[in-house]
Amino acid sequence: MRASRSLLWKLSIIVLLAVFSQPSFSGDTGSSDETAETGNGHEAAEMQPQRAGNRKGRGGRGGIAQVAEMNWPGKWELFLKSSGVSAMHAILLPLINKVQFYDATIWRISQIKLPPGVPCHVFDHVHNKVDCWAHSVLIDIESGHIRPLSLTTDTWCSSGGLTINGTLVSTGGFQGGANTARYLASCDNCNWVEYPKALAAQRWYSTQATLPDGTFIVVGGRQALNYEYILPEGMDNKKLYDSHLLKETTDREENNLYPFVWLNTDGNLFMFANNRSILLSPKTNKVIKEFPQLPGGARNYPGSASSALLPIRLYVNNPPVIPADVLICGGARQDGYFRADRLKLFDPALNDCARISLNSKRPAWKIEKMPAPRVMSDTVVLPNGKFSSLTARNMEHLDGA
Ligand SMILES: *[C@@H]1O[C@H](CO)[C@@H](O)[C@H](O)[C@H]1NC(C)=O
Ligand SMILES: *[C@@H]1O[C@H](CO)[C@@H](O)[C@H](O)[C@H]1NC(C)=O
């Protein structure tokens, strides 16, 4: 199973996105009452820059949306011929305007060597075998300058996120990387600092999410039907919390890997695994409610759908409830992995896109169809409040409203 999984992961690019919640962005999507304003996805190119400005009077604080050029149709440009390291994981470090790419270390090869003065990683002390390749690079998005960084614990199918001060915290991974928390601070000469015993459980294909105080929770992973909280840097966590959701949704295909975890506006966590979801309190670790099951198949890894928390309207003063909607698009039938792997039956991916309002009195999935089926896609929130769902094969805009 692992061998064939490796084929799957090679195809996947997990893009970790730092989403800036600018109030002026959020006016363009959110609840369905503004569907008409956003129109269909193909209108994205025609949106005028002043739209965002118009919203200012409604409580937006201006900012990036006002100056962002919204009517530019876009153009692909070859920026770098080779990054040296594959972007299995990629994240923008906004304070230094650099993108961090990092890959699995297990193959002990990349296209870029560690810089002079950085010692090679000894991965086999008995036979003194060393790996002198870099598996992490920091790329300056203005100049294209590449800085290779030493990263020794395996980040293959790890998870990660940014702290309030812009530090990248990466958790879990393969073998010796599974219990690791790694820190890469935002400065021009910062290097990774790795803590191989920081996590209580081995985390491979787990999800990291940000809590209201800016710290992190790490949820699930292979043979890890539980979750834990990341302690301050340098401290090793010992405390695990069992997850009934993960226990009840695991199956032959392990369809609950890389669960979707989003911080709700009430401070609780929306957790989605396989076809079920809950709202969990990170304070009491109690399940507050279970949402209706999402019919149609499995939505998490290996037959991954993509998910997004829709932009949140923060401009209403002291509303009793701040709406928060989650989108889940694509996926695969529950036995899809087994059928492909064992029976060589390759079924189409799912083409539905489901949306739920977490804080509504009677939350229900609203299901729309996408023009094409999608598996292992990434959903990106665009500055105009629309979503782009991308896979290697083609790219498409979804109407976020
Ligand atoms: C930034 O956050 C990280 C993770 O919490 C912490 O280890 C580090 O010390 C912080 N750096 C500064 C300059 O506050
Ligand atoms: C969710 O998945 C389980 C099996 O994993 C299945 O029995 C159940 O019918 C599914 N729910 C829906 C609504 O399809």
Short note summarizing the structure:
The protein is mainly β. The chain contains seven helices and 26 strands.
**Discrete helix count:** 7
| C-alpha-based Rg, rounded | 21 Å
Oligomer: single chain
Bound molecules: 2-acetamido-2-deoxy-beta-D-glucopyranose
Global structural class: mainly beta
Average pLDDT number: 83
> In total, how many beta strands?
26
Low-confidence stretches: 1-65, 392-401
Strand content: 25-35%
Shape: globular
Q: Strands across the major sheet, in which order?
A: 1-2-3-6-7
N-to-C span: 39 Å
- Major β-sheet, in short? 5 strands, mixed
> How much helix is in the residues?
under 10%
Region (Disordered): 25-62
Pfam families: Glyoxal_oxid_N (PF07250)
Protein name: BnaA02g13040D protein
Domain Glyoxal oxidase N-terminal: 88-386
SSE arrangement:
Layout: H1 2-11, E1 14-15, H2 23-26, H3 35-38, H4 50-54, H5 64-67, E2 89-93, E3 98-102, E4 121-124, E5 129-131, E6 136-140, E7 146-149, E8 159-162, E9 168-171, E10 181-184, E11 193-195, E12 207-210, E13 216-219, E14 226-229, E15 241-242, H6 244-249, E16 260-263, E17 269-273, E18 276-280, E19 287-290, E20 306-309, E21 325-329, H7 336-342, E22 352-357, E23 366-369, E24 378-381, E25 387-390, E26 395-398
Parallel strand pairs: 1-2
Antiparallel strand pairs: 2-3, 3-6, 4-5, 6-7, 8-9, 9-10, 10-11, 12-13, 13-14, 14-15, 16-17, 17-18, 18-19, 20-21, 21-22, 22-23, 24-25, 25-26
The protein binds 2-acetamido-2-deoxy-beta-D-glucopyranose (NAG) (2 copies).
One 2-acetamido-2-deoxy-beta-D-glucopyranose (NAG) binds at residues 163, 165, 167, 183, 185, 233.
Signal peptide: 1-26
Keywords: Signal
Region (Disordered): 25-62
